[in-house]
UniProtKB/TrEMBL annotation:
This is Toprim domain protein. Residues 2-90 form the Toprim domain. Residues 124-145 are annotated as: Disordered. Residues 132-145 have a biased composition (Basic and acidic residues). One of its GO terms (biological process) is rRNA processing. The lineage of its organism: Bacteria, Bacillati, Bacillota, Bacilli, Bacillales. Pfam families: Toprim (PF01751). It comes from Brockia lithotrophica.
Amino acid sequence: MQKVIIVEGKTDQRRLEEVLAEPVTFLLTHGTLGEEELLRRLLPYEREDVYIFVDADEPGNRLRRLLGRWFPRAKHLYTRKIYREIAHTPLAYLARVLDEAHFAVREEWLLAWERKVNGKERGRRRRRGRNRHFDEEEGSEGRGT
């Protein structure tokens, strides 16, 4: 069974291809196709392993609902609302989403994501540690010790 990712446009496809390390069939909706034409193009893939990965905006949400009715077994992949579009989503984040969906992705993008996440956690710990120390000093002064 082949993996098929439904995306809105060519830019989304290119963006995902940058992080993928396996062959995947892309089906583009082009955002403006009529429902009948779109269904005609997509139906031959209904028995495949279908993934829906569209933008996190209102047109993307409408398309996701429509595709979900046509492909109830499809797996839904999401970008974060702060990125809105797949085209604006960091490649490292796309790699994480695809990896969690069991796609083979290029190792450098997973490492980039891990560095980003681990760097932020370390920074938070350091800040929390400093604040805790400051708060303890403040607290001890406030108690008259």
